[in-house]
Structure to design on (383 residues):
């Protein structure tokens, strides 16, 4: 296997927001294009051989403010996610959107950071219950493509007013600005969790199970399907979990249901979150967003192209591992949103799906406003 380039090779790493601002301003004046990196865990879709200067926020690290009682935390962009999660665990709290760790799937050696999480809008199986990363942001600070420092939002809910640029920056992959600080809501950790396991079911059966379970008031926080096995997760207080488990078993009494508890359940959902079932494979991996009711037909089409699939988010997210050409993958997905996550042979232009004319005009207007010189992550988007 060919060794992957390190994100630290020829990588600039400012230690402060002011230093970053000066660097970006000078790059804009000289027309020097920058490859924006957080902790270096999601480099696969980018052109590492582009020759562009790389700039990382990994040295802009540290907790700025944390108020457990108010469920709010402020951190600099380079703060490692494991540091955040350890701090929250000590207070019985979590990041409700369960951010994915891409290192297993992409075989990268960087460290997941808060800035990278926000830049890619990273989330995991709990998205169907708690929403995405952007839904928990209270505010951001970032340096735009001209070197200006922009602040938006606040540190508590009552201070979040005006145009919410944090929603715009979240998921922009560094093409509109380089995040330097974020504030977000935290959530109480669950006292207990269990996973109901449905073995030897088809994709259609799994979709029906998910639709039925998610229509109940039992607060399903995970619904995934892999290797003919459907799993649904319930979290909460111990008495709640016992009641929900029994009601769900009654609802699905025509199935033989096993139960994962405690650490077994947590490990299962960590594996699902990080897509470890495709980590050791050689083929490209696609992340495809569809309407859950369309999942069986899309999966059937993808499997006819060759390769394997799995489902998350109750069928709203399809992971596809196969060698089919990008055009064929997107044709099968129809109105779904298909993004190449791994596979250097696909090229950076396969990372995002083609934009229609209206979306393209809006996107280009935004990039012109925030990055007029076109220097931020130019490989990811057409200008």
């Amino acid at each position: 296997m060919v060794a992957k380039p390190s994100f630290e090779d020829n990588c600039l790493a400012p230690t402060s927001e002011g230093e970053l601002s000066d660097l970006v301003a000078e790059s804009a004046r000289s027309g020097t294009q920058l490859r924006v990196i957080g902790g270096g865990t999601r480099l696969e879709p980018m052109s590492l051989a582009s020759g562009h200067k790389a700039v990382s926020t990994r040295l802009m690290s540290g907790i700025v403010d944390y108020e457990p009682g108010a469920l709010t935390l402020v951190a600099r962009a380079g703060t490692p996610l494991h540091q955040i999660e350890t701090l929250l665990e000590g207070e019985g709290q979590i990041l409700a959107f369960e951010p994915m760790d891409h290192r297993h799937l992409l075989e990268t050696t960087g460290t997941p950071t808060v800035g990278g999480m926000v830049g890619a809008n990273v989330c995991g199986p709990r998205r169907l219950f708690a929403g995405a990363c952007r839904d928990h942001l209270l505010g951001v600070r970032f340096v735009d493509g001209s070197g200006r420092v922009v602040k938006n939002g606040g540190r508590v809910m009552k201070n979040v007013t005006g145009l919410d640029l944090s929603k715009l920056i979240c998921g922009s992959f560094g093409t509109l600005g380089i995040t330097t600080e974020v504030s977000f809501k935290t959530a109480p950790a669950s006292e207990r969790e269990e996973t109901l396991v449905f073995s030897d079911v088809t994709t259609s059966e799994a979709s029906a199970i998910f639709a039925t379970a998610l229509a109940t008031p039992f607060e399903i926080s995970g619904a995934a399907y892999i290797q003919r096995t459907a799993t649904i997760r319930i979290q909460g207080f111990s008495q709640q979990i016992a009641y929900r488990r029994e009601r769900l078993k009654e609802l699905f009494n025509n199935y033989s249901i096993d139960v994962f508890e405690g650490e077994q359940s947590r490990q299962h959902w960590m594996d699902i979150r990080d897509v470890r079932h495709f980590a050791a494979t050689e083929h490209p991996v696609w992340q495809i967003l569809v309407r859950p009711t369309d999942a069986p037909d899309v999966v059937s089409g993808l499997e006819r192209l060759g390769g394997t699939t799995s489902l998350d988010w109750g069928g709203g997210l399809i992971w596809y591992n196969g060698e089919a050409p990008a055009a064929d993958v997107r044709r099968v997905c129809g109105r779904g949103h298909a993004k190449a996550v791994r596979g250097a042979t696909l090229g950076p232009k396969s990372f995002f799906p083609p934009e229609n004319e209206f979306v393209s005009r809006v996107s280009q207007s935004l990039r012109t406003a925030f990055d007029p010189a076109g220097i931020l992550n130019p490989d990811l988007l057409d200008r």
In short: The chain has three domains: 1-189+353-383, 192-273, 276-350. The two ends are 34 Å apart (CA to CA). The longest strand covers residues 177-185.
